[in-house]
Design brief:
16 helices, disordered N terminus
Length: 426
C-alpha cells in the first residue's frame, strides 16, 4: 500500500487516520479519478516529488562513494591503527639504503624483539574505595573490643523485633517461603494432590464436564458480583470449601483460643486479688465473718487499699503474670496477622491496666469478694480435714500424721492374652 508524505505534517491520531484513509483511496482509485479530484491530485504530486528527490539523493550518494572510494576505505581502516606503534610503523617510509647506521641499528633491534600482545580487559564495575585512615581503624578496633569486653548483646526488644520479622514473613507469605510447596512431601503439596484427585474423580471422562447436578444450575452463567464485593474470587471459593467441609478458618480458631486465654488470665488475676484481700482482712485463724473483715479493712482508703493489694500481688505473682501476659500478647499478634480485616484486630494486654482493672473490680464489690474468699477458705479447710481422715484409713491422699501411712496392695497382672488363648484352646 502506498503511503504519502503530508505537506503539512501533524502528530495527532485523527490526522494520521485521515491520512491512512486518503492513502487507501489514492491506491484504489484510477488515474482518471485522481485527476478529477483536486485533493487527490495534490497528494499524487507530493508523492511523485518525494520519489524524485529520493531517487536523486540515492544517485548522488552512489556517485560520491564511487568518486571517493579510496578515501572511504582509508577512513574505514583507521580503526586498525589505534595503537601508536602500529600507526608509526605504517607511516614510516621504506628503506632505500641511504639510512644512517644509528637508525638502521635501532630499527633492527626493534624488529628482533617480539612485541607484547595487548590483552583487552573488560571494564570493571567495582568501585575502589580509598583505604581507611589508621586513626579511624584504631578507633573502630577499640569500640569492637569494648563491646566484647562489656558483653553488649541484643536487647529483648531487638530480639523480639527480629523474631517478629521472621514470623511476619512466614504468616503472610505462607510456608512456601521455607519449603517447596509443590512437592508431594510437603503439607501444601499433599493438599494440592488430594484436591486434584477429588476434582478428577468428579469429572466425567466421556463428556469432560462435572457429573454433579449442582453444576447444571451454574455452568455457563456469570458469578454473583454482590457476594464478591469485599473479597477476591480465590478467598470466596476457599471459604466456601471450608464451609462445606465444616472447617473454621484459621483466624476464627485463633480468635476463640485468644478469648479463652484472656478470660482465664483475668479470672486468675481476679482470684489472686480476692485472695490477697482475704489475707489482708483476716486475723488469727481466719474465721471472722464478712462484717468483721470489712470492719478491719475500713482503716484503708480506696486508693491505699488498691495500692496495698497491688504490692501483695506483685510480691508473690509478678513473674508469673508478666510471662503470661507476654505469651497472650504473642497469641494476639498471631491472630491479628491472620485476621482478614483490621476491624477484627484485638488490642494487646497492658500489665498495669490489667492489674488496675482487676483490683478496682474487687475493691468496688468488696462484700461479694469477701464472701467468695471466705467460702473458698472454708472449702479448703474442709478438704484438708477430710484428706487427713482418709490418710488415717490408709486411702490415698495427704495426711496430717505421717506415722499412719496407707499401705497399697501390689497390683496383680491380668494376663488378658493368656485368657484369650485358653478360651480358644477349649
Amino acid at each position: 500500500m502506498l503511503r504519502l508524505v503530508r505537506c503539512n505534517s501533524t502528530k495527532s491520531a485523527l490526522a494520521e487516520r485521515f491520512q491512512q484513509i486518503l492513502d487507501e483511496k489514492l491506491h484504489l482509485a484510477s488515474r482518471s479519478a485522481i485527476s478529477k479530484d483536486e485533493h487527490l491530485s495534490l497528494q499524487l504530486d507530493c508523492l511523485e516529488q518525494f520519489n524524485t528527490e529520493r531517487s536523486q539523493s540515492q544517485l548522488e550518494g552512489a556517485a560520491f562513494e564511487q568518486k571517493y572510494q579510496r578515501e572511504i576505505a582509508f577512513v574505514n581502516s583507521e580503526k586498525r591503527f589505534n595503537l601508536q606503534n602500529e600507526r608509526n610503523d605504517a607511516l614510516q617510509r621504506p628503506w632505500n639504503g641511504s639510512e644512517l647506521v644509528l637508525e638502521t641499528s635501532r630499527r633492527m633491534l626493534d624488529d628482533s624483539v617480539a612485541k607484547a600482545k595487548r590483552v583487552e580487559r573488560k571494564p570493571s564495575r567495582t568501585i575502589i574505595s580509598p583505604p581507611v585512615p589508621l586513626s579511624e581503624r584504631i578507633q573502630n578496633a577499640k569500640e569492637l573490643s569494648l563491646d566484647y569486653k562489656v558483653g553488649k548483646a541484643m536487647t529483648p526488644e531487638e530480639k523480639e523485633r527480629e523474631q517478629f520479622k521472621e514470623m511476619y514473613k512466614e504468616r503472610l507469605l505462607g510456608p512456601s517461603v521455607f519449603s517447596n510447596s509443590a512437592s508431594s512431601s510437603s503439607t501444601m503439596g499433599l493438599i494440592t494432590s488430594m484436591a486434584d484427585a477429588r476434582i478428577n474423580a468428579e469429572i466425567d471422562q466421556k463428556t469432560g464436564t462435572f457429573s454433579s447436578q449442582e453444576m447444571l444450575s451454574v455452568r455457563g452463567k456469570p458469578l454473583d458480583k454482590d457476594r464478591l464485593k469485599n473479597s477476591t474470587d480465590t478467598a470466596y471459593f476457599m471459604n466456601e470449601l471450608l464451609k462445606k467441609q465444616d472447617c473454621l478458618p484459621t483466624w476464627i480458631e485463633n480468635q476463640q483460643g485468644v478469648d479463652v486465654e484472656v478470660n482465664a488470665f483475668r479470672a486468675n488475676l481476679k482470684s489472686q486479688a480476692v485472695s490477697s484481700l482475704h489475707k489482708l482482712a483476716k486475723s488469727g485463724d481466719g474465721t471472722q465473718s464478712v462484717a468483721e473483715m470489712k470492719l478491719a479493712l475500713s482503716v484503708y482508703t480506696q486508693d491505699k487499699l488498691e495500692s496495698k493489694l497491688l504490692l501483695m500481688i506483685l510480691k508473690t505473682k509478678k513473674d508469673y503474670f508478666q510471662s503470661k501476659i507476654a505469651d497472650i500478647n504473642t497469641k494476639i499478634r498471631h491472630y491479628n496477622l491472620s485476621a482478614p480485616s483490621s476491624s477484627l484486630h484485638k488490642w494487646k494486654l497492658i500489665e498495669e491496666n490489667e492489674y488496675q482493672t482487676a483490683i478496682s473490680k474487687v475493691v468496688l464489690n468488696i462484700d461479694e469478694a469477701l464472701e467468695l474468699a471466705n467460702s473458698q477458705h472454708t472449702k479448703v479447710k474442709e478438704k484438708q480435714v477430710s484428706s487427713s481422715f482418709l490418710g488415717l484409713l490408709g486411702e490415698k491422699g495427704p495426711s496430717i500424721n505421717t506415722s499412719y501411712s496407707g499401705i497399697e496392695r501390689p497390683k496383680e497382672p491380668l494376663q488378658f492374652w493368656q485368657l484369650v488363648k485358653d478360651i480358644f484352646k477349649s
